Amino acid sequence: MNLANKLTILRIMLVPVFMIFLLNKIDYGVYIAAGIFTFAAITDSLDGYIARKNNQITNFGKFMDPLADKLLVSAALISLVQMDRLSAWVVFIIIAREYTISILRAIAASEGIVIAASWWGKAKTITQIIAIIAILLNNFPFSYINFPFATIMVYLAVIFTVLSGLDYVRINQHILKH
User: Fold this and answer.
1) 3-176 has which fold?
2) CA 96 to CA 50: how far, in whole Å?
3) How far apart, in Å, do the first and last CA atoms of the chain sit?
4) What are the transmembrane regions (predicted)?
5) What is the pLDDT of residues 65-91, one digit of tens each?
6) Region at 138 (left for phi over 0; alpha for psi -120 to 50; beta for the rest)
7) Which candidate, 29, 36, 37, 117, places its Cα nearest to that of 74?
8) 141: cis peptide before it, omega within 30°?
9) pLDDT at 99 over 80
10) C-beta of residue 91 within 8 angstroms of C-beta of residue 78
11) Are 107 and 175 within 8 A, CB to CB?
12) Using 50, 70 and 90 to split pLDDT, how confident is the model at 178?
């Protein structure tokens, strides 16, 4: 169990902690949840960097890292719908894309093919994380000037989510033909 994999497990363990602070009436709970979410999102970049730098890429990491990301983002999105701070259609599009690409990756893995993250996929992840943090922090730092930063980031996240999904399917359509 290397450091990168430990960070992935930590990210998974932080999901229920994040949700406890977000969904319960705890003083400053939303802000603590935003801090936990931000920390967990940073560990996503950090674990990949550590694994590549130290040549410690494992099968566990290849499968659990994307799962940890999906759990964290899905928990945040579903919680934001419950809190009436995000529309369900946005969450449906994002989660549907995640299921679709996960199934595509599983089919590829069964044939010994690893589907690497694309630029579109990285842009999707970054915009989703920024959108979630902006919603959690009530559009801070733009809340004082009435600029809809969180709303813009949500729409960008949806656009990048759809484009990245289409790109993965286009590039890997040969896998689906088998």
Assistant:
1) Four Helix Bundle (Hemerythrin (Met), subunit A) (1.20.120)
2) 30
3) 35
4) 7-24, 30-50, 71-96, 102-121, 152-169
5) 889 999 999 999 999 999 999 999 999
6) left
7) 37
8) yes
9) yes
10) yes
11) yes
12) low
